[in-house]
Amino acid sequence: MTNSPRSENFRANELFENALAVSPNNQKALFYSGVAAAERGDKELAANRWETLLATSPPQNIREILVQQIAELRGEAPPVPAQVTTGDGIVNVRVTLGESAISQVRPDSTVFVIARDPAQPSPPVAAVRRTAAELPVYVSIGDSDAMTPGRLPSAFAQLEIVARVSSSGQPTAQSGDRFDSGVKRGLCHHRRTSPVANPEREWKSSTSDERSMVIN
User: Which domains does the chain have, with CATH numbers?
Assistant: First the structure.
């Protein structure tokens, strides 16, 4: 006797849910559990899963598909794809670990650099994912890093930047996370017309101390 397609789908979804219980940021499990939720009509869960997947910095082509699908699930107008130039972020920050954190943070720990609206911190406007081993690192946050359709960093006159080592690996803050925050500024929106040979050096020379973030 063969199993029905419905039974097979149930078992597959159960495997993905088990995978997420162990590893909440498992990209494959987030994607396919979102697909399964959408197929059974649970639009809210599907959108939530894919928004979590967006926070894990998937490839740009996958990100664009997810943003479009999330907009449809939430009944919103799909955003017009942003024309973003590499290295031309809305906000550029340098993130490093403080002395008290260096010896206590594992190299494979997840680091989230989040841009949020000071007047409405949740949900975040944009997020970039790195690992502690990459620190110190210069992070550029642009419209392609937007978390939800229709809320692009370039649309905000002011953003708050939070750099956080996630103890759980999840985008949402948890007890025990280490972080630095409070970088609030008016944004000057512009586009560079000439290429920069060394973007990191350019950021170093033009970035003030208020754009440096130290996670303790």
Answer: 5-73 (1.25.40.10), 91-215 (no CATH)
